[in-house]
């Protein structure tokens, strides 16, 4: 019976650790790194502060683990999307990415809110020698958008622009508007809702408004991007951008 008990204890330990990481993320998107301490995270998790230190010796150790977990999930989202949408043309790809990002925001609003804070706190969390390495995974999204824009320029679907500059603009509009969207929908919207419920929450309209601005900047006419976005909505539906672990 001893091995079984040891296994059960490890399961409890891992579950408790996950509760702490989840609480740290919830607090972080509200207060940021400097505004958070172990007392606040402990209260969020419903645990004694002393127990927190059993799992994480310092606030920085806790936040580094939380940062890495969230970025790992973001990478899983990216790889899943890249695999499923590899054959799409540039405009179709960008439209699909727009809708997937709104789906990701709907499945867990904290992921987008985390992305807003990440650039400001990476140095404090990862340290002066490792913060740039820690940020590299967050750059994968920008690189993928730039690649799609570059391909669109080469094929004549997108006007002549600097792909990296345009990707930064595209991403900034995404994140800023998604941040506002997640604040609006709150934590109640989950990836288990039906597509009609998501439409009622304003997701579809918000995605169209962001797409209009972004594609307009790329010189893509509405008659081209709007049907592409509609096809993305129809084909992905409620699966949107829910990241799989």
Strand elements, count:
0
Report the sheet with the most strands, covering strand number, pairing sense and barrel closure. none
Indicate how many domains the architecture comprises. Answer: 2
Report the total helices: 12
Mean pLDDT level: 83
Oligomer: single chain
Structural class: mainly alpha
Strand coverage percent: under 5%
How far apart the termini lie comes to 32 Å
Work out the radius of gyration: 20 Å
Shape: elongated
Order of helices and strands: HHHHHHHHHHHH
Q: Can you give a write-up of this model?
A:
This protein is mostly helical and about 240 residues long. The protein has two domains: about 1-55, Homeodomain-like (Arc Repressor Mutant, subunit A, Orthogonal Bundle); about 65-240, Tetracycline Repressor, domain 2 (Orthogonal Bundle). It contains twelve helices and no strands. It has helices at about 1-30, 40-45, 50-55, 60-85, 90-105, 110-125, 130-135, 140-155, 165-185, 195-200, 205-215, 220-235. Helix 1 (about 1-30) packs across helix 6, helix 5 (about 90-105) crosses helix 6 (about 110-125) and helix 6 packs across helix 9. The chain is elongated, with a radius of gyration of 20 Å. The two termini are about 30 Å apart. The model is unreliable at about 185-200 and about 240-245 (pLDDT under 50).
């Amino acid at each position: 019976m001893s091995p079984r008990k040891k296994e059960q204890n490890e399961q409890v330990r891992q579950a408790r650790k996950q509760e702490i990481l989840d609480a740290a993320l919830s607090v972080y998107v509200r207060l940021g790194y400097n505004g958070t301490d172990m007392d606040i995270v402990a209260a969020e998790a419903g645990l004694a502060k002393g127990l927190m230190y059993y799992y994480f010796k310092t606030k920085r150790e806790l936040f580094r683990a939380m940062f890495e977990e969230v970025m790992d999930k973001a990478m899983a989202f990216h790889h899943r999307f890249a695999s499923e949408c590899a054959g799409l043309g540039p405009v179709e790809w960008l439209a699909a990415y727009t809708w997937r990002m709104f789906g990701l925001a709907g499945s867990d609003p904290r992921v987008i809110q985390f992305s807003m804070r990440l650039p400001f706190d990476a140095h404090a969390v990862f340290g002066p020698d490792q913060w740039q390495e820690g940020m590299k995974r967050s750059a994968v999204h920008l690189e993928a958008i730039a690649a799609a824009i570059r391909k669109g320029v080469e094929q004549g679907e997108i006007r002549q622009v600097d792909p990296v500059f345009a990707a930064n603009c595209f991403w900034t509009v995404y994140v800023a508007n998604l941040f506002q969207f997640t604040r609006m929908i709150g934590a109640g919207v989950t990836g288990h809702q039906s597509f009609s419920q998501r439409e009622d929450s304003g997701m579809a309209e918000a995605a169209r408004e962001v797409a209009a601005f972004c594609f307009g900047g790329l010189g893509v006419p509405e008659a081209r991007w709007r049907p592409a976005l509609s096809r993305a909505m129809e084909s992905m539906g409620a699966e949107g951008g829910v990241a799989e672990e």
